[in-house]
Amino acid sequence: MTAQSKNHSFYQVITDDFSRVNEIIRRQLVSNVPLVEQIAEYIISAGGKRLRPLLVLLAGNAVGKKGDDLCLLAGLIEFIHTSTLLHDDVVDASGLRRGRSTANAIWGNAPSVLVGDFLYTRAFEMMVKLDSMPIMQVISHATRIIAEGEVLQLSRVRDASTTEEIYMEVIRGKTAMLFEAATHSAAVLGGAPEEQCEALRCFGDALGVAFQLVDDLLDYQGDISELGKNVGDDLAEGKPTLPLIYAMANGTEEQSAIIRKAIQRGEGEEFQLISEIVKETGALDYTAKLAKDYAERAIRFLDQIPDSIYKVAMVDLTKFAVERVY
User: Fold this and answer.
1) pTM value surpassing 0.90
2) What is the CATH number of the domain that holds 298?
């Protein structure tokens, strides 16, 4: 967890649980193969916001679930997320994440993929310890959807014909699904009533969509010192994100042609010009408004959850998700 994150109230209400989750993560990184531990420790120690395990803890506590099982669930969710980061950086040929060189940039693609596999399988070993078939169903379903979302995104790289509908399908799979799995599985583990389980599932989905929309927004107006990655990476990788899709649909023929060409070539040389276009066409405002709409939708789902400091923290977290600059 970053120093920036520690100051937020939504972390402070579960400080002790978060410490226990970190202890679980450290214990589960143990391997007989030194390189596995070295790479896994490197990416885990980078910290990040740890939003997904945070969501597990907040959602679980909000429905009255506490204890070691909840912390174990939070840890395995973080392992799944970390494994996807390792794989994503290889697929995207990324060289920077969270302000540091990526694992693949240091050790190469093959070790990064294999250690990602290690973290995936370790997560499922941890899941078995929970001895809950409903949890297994939620998590296994989520990992399949995440994989499909990543493949769908890959199939759309350099495809300037990608629609907003397809884009939303991509981000629901590759990002929102794990947010949803975090809150849903916590509710299931806590034995919450069906209506609360469904409310928390929908909350996680809407929050995840809002979070990814802001991520894609920050790719055009973020600060590298805050983001820990290069701005313009999505464009350089030929990813047709919502700001680009909206700008192509609402800009002039010349503006649309410039963006289309940049996506098809997967080049970032025109980044400054395209940044101006997405701003002029209202694409950034449109994306920001949609993110805010999803955040408000997420908060409304919490009406089904009993009032508590944990529910308040989830509301605060949702607001942070759309107001953040990193």
Assistant:
1) yes
2) 1.10.600.10
Rounded CA separation 97/103 (Å): 9
| 274: containing domain | 3-323
Find all residues with CB under 8 Å of 190, minimum gap 6, and list them. Answer: 59, 60, 63, 64, 65, 70
**Contact 123/79 with Cβ under 8 angstroms?**
yes
Q: What is the pLDDT of residues 69-91, one digit of tens each?
A: 999 999 999 999 999 999 999 99
Q: Using the 8-state DSSP alphabet, how is residue 307 labeled?
A: P
**Chain segment 143-183, per-residue pLDDT in tens:** 999 999 999 999 999 999 999 999 999 999 999 999 999 99
Give the total number of structural domains in the chain.
1
Q: Is 103 in contact with 43 (CB distance < 8 Å)?
A: yes
The mean pLDDT value for 99-124 works out to 94
Report the alpha-carbon distance of residue 269 to residue 169 in Å, rounded: 28
What is the rounded CA–CA span in Å between residue 158 and residue 172?
20
Residue 109 pLDDT > 80: yes
Helices (H), 63-132: 68-92, 103-107, 109-130
Q: What angle do CA 146, 228, 247 make, to 5 degrees?
A: 65
Say if residues 204 and 299 touch (Cβ distance below 8 Å).
no
Three-state DSSP state, 26: helix
